Amino acid sequence: MELKEDYFEQQQTLKNADTAQEHQINHSSPFDPSPTLKTCPVVRGYPFVGVLPELLQNPLRLFQRAIKDHPGEIVALKLGPIQAHLVTHPDHVQYILNDNWQNFGKGEAMWKPVRQVAGNSLITSQGESWFRTRRLMQPMFTANQVNTFTELSVKIIASQLARFEKAADGGAIDMENEMRLLTQSITLGVIFSSSIDHNRAETLVEALKVLMQGLSRRLFLCFLPKQFPIPGERAFRNAIQTTDDTILTIIRQRRQSAFEHGDLLERLLLARDEESKTGMNDQQLRDESITLFIAGYETTATTLTWIWYLLDKHPEVERKLRAEIDTVIGKRHPTSADVAKLQYTKMVIQEAMRVYPSGWFLARVVQADDVIDGYALKAGTTVLLCQYLTHRLPEFWDRPEVFDPERFAPEHSTQRHSHSYFPFGGGPHYCIGKHFVLLQTQLTVAMMMQKYRLRCFPGHPVEALPGITLRPRYGLRMIVEPV
User: How high is the pLDDT of residue 1?
Assistant: First the structure.
C-alpha cells in the first residue's frame, strides 16, 4: 500500500471533529475482530528500577535489544513502578496512528516538557482544540502553498552558503553545526522575514538551543518519580521566558504594521477559522511560531547532516544525484518549477529519512482499554512507536541496512505497507510540515551540490545519538571541496 497524502488535504470538506473521527473509525482493521489474547513479553531489567537506567543512557539500544529478542511483538518495558509498551510492527502502528487513533492520545507525562516550550500548539493539543487549529493551519501547508516560499528560501540559502564557504576555508568543519546554522536562518526567515534582526535571531537561537537540550533530557526522565530533581531547570525556564519575550514582541509589532511581509507569520495573523471566523490570539501565534521553528529547523538540519554522511559512503548515489541536479538546474538557482523535477533528489531524502529518521520515536497514551492484535492494553498505558526500528524490519524491507534511494521509485513504492515508513507520523496527526521540510531539504541539497563535494574526515567516529532527534553523537566532521 502506498503512503497516502496528508489526511487533512484529502478531508478539506470535513466540518467537525465528530465527522473526522467517524471517517477514521470506519477504516478496516488488519486484525481478527475476536483475537486470541496474547501476553506481552516483558523486558524487566534490574529490581525496583527495571530498565530505567538503560532507557536514560541509550533508549535506542534498549529498543533494539527488546525487538531482537521479541520480533513482531508488542513488548512491555519495566520502568520502575510502571510499564511502557514498545510497538514496531506496521500493522500495530497503523492501528494506533490511523485505525483507532482517537483512543491513543498524547497524554501528559512525556508531553509535559514539550508543552512547557510549545504551549497549546498543534503538536501538543488534543480534541476540539487540536482539530480547530489543524483546520485553520492546513491550507497554509499544502504543497502548492509551501512552494510559494521557494524564492525566499533560495535567497536565504544563497546568502548562507557564502558564509559557509568562509567557514570551511579548505579545512574540516562540523557539518551538523553548519546545517543547524543554515536551517535556523532559513526557518527564521520564512516565519518572520524582516521582523527578526540579527540580534533578535541570535538571542532566540541561543534560548532555543537550551530548550532543545532540556527537552532531550526531560523526555525520558518523565518516567522517574516527580520528586526527582531535573538538572538545568533554572536555565530551561529562563530560556522559555527569553523565547516568549522575543516572539511576543515581534507579534505585537506586526499587528501594528501595515507592511506586507509575505512570510508564515503574516499568514498566521490573517488566518480565520472557516466556522467561527476567528483568528489566533497572541499566545496562540507564539505557540505555533515556536513549534514551526523547532520542527522546521531541527528535523531539516538533522536530515541534511545524515544525507551528507550517506552520500560520502555511497559514491554511486552521489554521482546519480549530481547528474540530476546538473541536468535540471545546472549552475543557476532552482525555481519552484524545478522542485518537482528533482525526483531522484527527493528519493535520496526519503531514503535518508528511512535509515536515520530525525524523529525516531513517537509516544501515545491509551485512553480506554484496548486490544491490538490480541495484546490487551489498559487505559493509561504509554505506547512507544519507533520509526528507526520499523524502517529497518527485514520482513518489510529488502536489505534494510543498505542505503538505496531506488526503494522510493514509484514502481517500487506501490506494494509497501503504508505504515512500514512513517517519518512524518500517520493518520490525522500526520506532520503538517512535511512539504516544508522536503522543500527546504531539496533546495539545500541541490544548491550545495552545485558548489561543493563533501567528504567525511578520516577516522572521525559516527554513531547515532537518540535524543529528541537522532543526531550524530560526535557531530560530523567533513572536508569541503569545490566542485
Answer: 36
Report how many domains make up the chain.
1
Residue 1 included in any domain? no
Provide the pLDDT for residue 217. Answer: 75
CATH number at residue 47: 1.10.630.10
Q: Are strands 470-472 and 477-482 parallel, antiparallel or unpaired?
A: unpaired
- pLDDT over 80 at 332, yes or no: yes
In a domain, 2, yes or no: no
Domain annotation covers residue 284 = yes
5 is written with which cell numbers?
Answer: 497524502
> How wide is the angle at C-alpha 351 spanned by C-alphas 349 and 355, nearest 5°?
115
The three-state DSSP-derived secondary structure of the chain is CCCCCCHHHHCCCCCCHHHHHHHHHCCCCCCCCCCCCECCCEECCECCCECHHHHHHCHHHHHHHHHHHCCCCCEEEEECCEEEEEECCHHHHHHHHHHCHHHEECCCCCCHHHHHHHCCCCCCCCHHHHHHHHHHHHHHHCHHHHHCCHHHHHHHHHHHHHHHHHHHCCCEEEHHHHHHHHHHHHHHHHHHHHHCCHHHHHHHHHHHHHHHHHHHHHHHHCCCCCCCCCCCHHHHHHHHHHHHHHHHHHHHHHHCCCCCCCCHHHHHHHCCCCCCCCCCCHHHHHHHHHHHHHHHHHHHHHHHHHHHHHHHHCHHHHHHHHHHHHHHCCCCCCCHHHHCCCHHHHHHHHHHHHHCCCCCEEEEEECCCEEECCEEECCCCEEEEEHHHHCCCCCCCCCCCCCCHHHHCHHHHCCCCCCCCCCCCCHHHCCCCHHHHHHHHHHHHHHHHHHEEEEECCCCCCCEEECCCEEECCCCEEEEEEC
Could you list the residue range(s) of the whole structural domain that residue 240 is in? 7-482
Is 135 a domain residue? yes
Q: What pTM value is reported for the model?
A: 0.89
Q: pLDDT digits over 183-205, tens only?
A: 999 999 999 987 888 888 889 88
